[in-house]
């Protein structure tokens, strides 16, 4: 990763999304000395099939799991914006919350999900698409322009220009990141999401198969892939 990228913010919909889509890349960036933080839009309060679980308990459990996973990867901070799971909307409130996170963390690179619906239904979960759309609108123009959200400027959150965006992407990706040396950390971080995993061996098999498939064209044992937007050279 280029020198001009020092600070990275991963903006996703749910606790565990960062690890699934970019855990190996995050671990690699941290090993390269980059400062990586997370901003998670929803509280994940519907991600359970356990009829005895309450949404409130689940929020606490998933925040804890996410903090553990972030620690495994070396992520410095985790912001939970707390919007309800499966009900994320692109509103002034959600755009202002993400703009505030960008202005606070001041990332050179933003890693987001895929804003488009694809045939991969899990990856194109409604919250993922909405979160990615919000994040892109915050990169340009909302985090950049001082007159967007005057209340943020009043809080001392100065405008910020993100230089590049990686969007999690599997079909014809622009960027293939070799995660052969960090896939074990990715799996260890994923394993922290205990409430979300019924069969860790099965999950590991799927993650390794997908990683191998994404790396094949470049001769990498395992990879993660992204679409790439350069805003400022
Ligand atoms: Zn998700």
Class inferred from helices and paired strands? alpha/beta
Helix proportion of residues, in percent?
A: 40-55%
Annotation, overall tally of beta strands: 7
Q: Give the number of helices.
A: 7
Mean pLDDT: 96
Strand content: 15-25%
Strand order of the biggest β-sheet:
3-2-1-4-5-7-6
Structure description:
The protein is α/β, with parallel strands linked by helices. It contains 7 helices and 7 strands. The protein has a 7-stranded mixed sheet with strand order 3-2-1-4-5-7-6, sandwiched between helices. Zinc ion (ZN) is lined by residues 13-14, 17, 125, 128.
What can be said about this structure in brief?
With 233 residues, this protein is an alpha/beta fold.
Write the layout of secondary structure elements.
Layout: E1 7-12, H1 17-31, E2 35-42, H2 55-73, E3 77-83, H3 92-105, E4 109-112, H4 126-142, H5 150-154, E5 164-168, E6 175-178, H6 183-190, H7 200-215, E7 223-230
Helix pairs in contact: 1-6, 2-6, 3-4
Label this structure with key terms.
7 strands, alpha/beta, 233 residues, 40% helix, 7-stranded mixed beta sheet, binds zinc ion
């Amino acid at each position: 990763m280029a020198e001009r990228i020092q600070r990275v913010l991963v903006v996703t919909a749910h606790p565990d999304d960062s690890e699934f889509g970019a855990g190996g890349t995050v671990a690699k960036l941290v090993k390269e000395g980059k400062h990586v933080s997370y901003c998670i839009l929803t509280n994940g309060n519907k991600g359970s099939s356990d009829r005895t679980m309450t949404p409130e308990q689940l929020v606490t459990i998933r925040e804890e799991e996410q903090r553990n996973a972030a620690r495994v990867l070396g992520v410095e901070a985790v912001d939970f914006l707390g919007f309800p799971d499966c009900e994320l909307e692109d509103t002034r409130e959600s755009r202002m919350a993400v703009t505030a996170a960008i202005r606070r963390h001041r990332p050179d690179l933003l890693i987001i999900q895929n804003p488009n619906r694809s045939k991969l239904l899990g990856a194109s979960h409604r919250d993922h698409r909405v979160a990615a759309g919000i994040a892109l609108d915050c990169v340009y123009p909302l985090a950049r322009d001082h007159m967007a959200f005057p209340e943020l400027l009043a809080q001392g959150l100065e405008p910020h220009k993100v230089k590049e965006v990686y969007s999690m992407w599997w079909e014809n990706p622009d960027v293939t990141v070799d995660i052969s040396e960090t896939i074990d950390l990715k799996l260890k971080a994923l394993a922290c999401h205990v409430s979300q995993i019924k069969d860790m061996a099965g999950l590991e098999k799927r993650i390794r198969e997908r990683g191998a498939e994404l790396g094949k064209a470049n001769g990498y044992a395992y990879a993660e892939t992204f679409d790439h937007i350069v805003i400022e050279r």
